[in-house]
Amino acid sequence: MGEFISALEAAGELVRIRHPVSARLEVTEIADRVMKQPGGGKALLFENVLRHDGTRSPYPLAINLFGSKRRMAMALGVQDLDEVGARIASMLELKVPEGFLAKLALLPRLLEVAKFPPRRFTGAPPCQEIVWRGREVDVMRLPVITCWPGDAGPYITLPMVVSRDPVRGTRNVGMYRVQVLGPDSLAMHWQRHKGGAEHQRVAQDIGAEKIPVAVSLGGDPAIIWAGSAPLPNDIDEMMLAGWLRGKSVELVRCVTQPIEVPADAEIVIEGYVNPREQKLEGPFGDHTGYYSNADYYPVMHVTAITHRRDAIYPATIVGKPPMEDAWMGKATERLFLPLIKMFQSEVVDINLPIEGAFHNLAIVSIKKRYPVNRAK
Length: 376
Ligand SMILES: Cc1cc2nc3c(=O)[nH]c(=O)nc-3n(C[C@H](O)[C@H](O)[C@H](O)COP(=O)(O)O)c2cc1C
Fold this sequence. Notes:
The protein is of the alpha+beta class. It has a domain at 112-315: Roll (Pnp Oxidase, Chain A). The protein has helices spanning 2-10, 26-35, 69-75, 81-92, 100-114, 195-206, 221-226, 237-245, 325-343, and strands at residues 14-17, 21-22, 43-46, 49-50, 61-63, 119-120, 130-133, 155-156, 160-164, 171-174, 178-182, 185-188, 211-217, 250-253, 260-262, 267-281, 284-285, 291-292, 295-307, 313-315, 347-351, 363-366. Strands 7, 8, 9, 10, 11, 12, 13, 16 and 19 form a nine-stranded antiparallel beta sheet that branches. Strands 1-3-5-20 form a four-stranded mixed beta sheet. A three-stranded mixed beta sheet has the order 6-14-15, with no helix packed on it. The mean pLDDT is 93. Flavin mononucleotide (FMN) binds next to β10, α6 and α9. The site of flavin mononucleotide has 19 residues, from β10, α6 and α9.
């Protein structure tokens, strides 16, 4: 993420803010105005964030990193998002040809999919340079922001929540907002149809008392985005991120939990969820521009926090569109179009309008091949 921030700065896409700014509502006030500028404004690096207790955070806060078409493309290492869509399309067009030599020629393209599986990191992982355990654990030592006046509390807003299916062992990475309930307790807002919630259900079914969970912050921007990508449950987001960047994601085991996170993350919050324990989460000023009501969600108990020595805390805000998530959603639209076309060949193009906040609104153009002949 540090390299990405340097690249943004070199491209004139980043503004540093040295003036002290409070994590309580002030970061949002500034970021909201910038995100609403034509094209999404610049990325912001707040170098002097005042935490909720009024003290200065040693960790700068980055926001709006993905908040323009250009920056979103840079995050995925391309000039234009359609380039990635075209790569996916060419992979999906694999019609097996006749003849041995022609089949051989297909191999490199087929192998491309599986070429970048996540790998185990060897050596001392950057994300564990500093380790907080026991009494040192306090999530509010990080510059966690309170976004909107009616929010139930401070929220971690750009996390990759990593969990495993307790039976099959498959991994899920999801971007779900996380509410800070106390120094070592967090509310996990994984909606019931999401990967994390499925793992919780499986854990309930088998009577497991704890499932390990990690909230990973920062790392390769492709991984951060992959956490928001609507992948089927059994496809590993780490594999997608590796394929996007042409480089395997390197994983390391957490220090207190049997679960892996990207070794190059900035900050990792480790802990476990008791699948039967729930607490009220919300209200929270949501993507739609309205507050979502409070509801019951599981609690994560934090067992350790690890971070890079020079960690940068990544955040976003959601609210009345356009916001930063508009550009993350546009990347999803471009990348998933070829997959939709594979199942529905009449689809020509798709527009998830920013104004729809990526919730249940899609405009789809089709080439109708079988028009209905109405009986006269
Ligand atoms: C900024 C942002 C915040 C999000 N917050 C949530 C959230 O709080 N809960 C949730 O279930 N999905 C949230 N999402 C959507 C999920 O990230 C998305 O549905 C993703 O595909 C979930 O991964 P999964 O299918 O592996 O569970 C958010 C997306 C973005 C871009």
